[in-house]
Amino acid sequence: MLLRLVWFVAGIAMLLPLVAYADPMDDAVRRVGLQLQCPVCEGQNVADSPSGLAKDMREVIRTRLAAGASDQQVLDEFVASYGDGILTEPPKRGISLGVWIGPAVGLALGIGLLALVLMSWRRAPRAASAGAVAALDPDVADEFQRFRGELSR
């Protein structure tokens, strides 16, 4: 137990210099890179993609941020070059607004449809039972009465 604790403390002590020398620019590049999709790799963002194009994009981001550009300005430059599809989150305007509103509308329609179906199921047995008694053939109604009479004996 003591040996495990010593190894744990030693491991933490070895990682401290790495944390102490973290570059704030790396954090800024990662923050912007997480908001951009890699044009080469499907489903990966620029910050995590191993492709050469993503590496070049990270360098452009680093250069622009070092020159004093804001995150939004860097993102706007990439959108101007690649279009809205480069963003990991679609913009909340135009046709892309459907991505944001669509699920809520679909959920509301689904709940409304489910409520209508459940209400029709609650009404259907009552209406069917009343209609079934009225629609019985007279011969069948006599047999039904005779059967009920024998059953009650």
Quick structural gist:
The protein has six helices and no strands. By secondary structure, the chain is mostly helical. The model has no long low-confidence stretch (mean pLDDT 82).
Run of helices and strands: HHHHHH
Strand content: under 5%
Morphology: elongated
- Reported by name, the CATH topology of the largest domain is Helicase, Ruva Protein, domain 3
The CATH architecture category of the largest domain equals Orthogonal Bundle
Q: What distance lies between the first and last C-alpha atoms, to the nearest angstrom?
A: 82 Å
* Annotated CATH homologous superfamily of the largest domain: Cytochrome C biogenesis protein
Number of helical runs? 6
Uncertain spans, ≥5 residues at pLDDT below 50? none
Record field, number of beta strands = 0
Average pLDDT taken over every residue? 82
What is the CATH domain class of the largest domain?
Mainly Alpha
When the domains are counted, the total is 2
Structure class: mainly alpha
Q: Which bin fits the share of residues in helices?
A: over 70%
Radius of gyration: 34 Å
Biggest β-sheet strands, sense, barrel: none
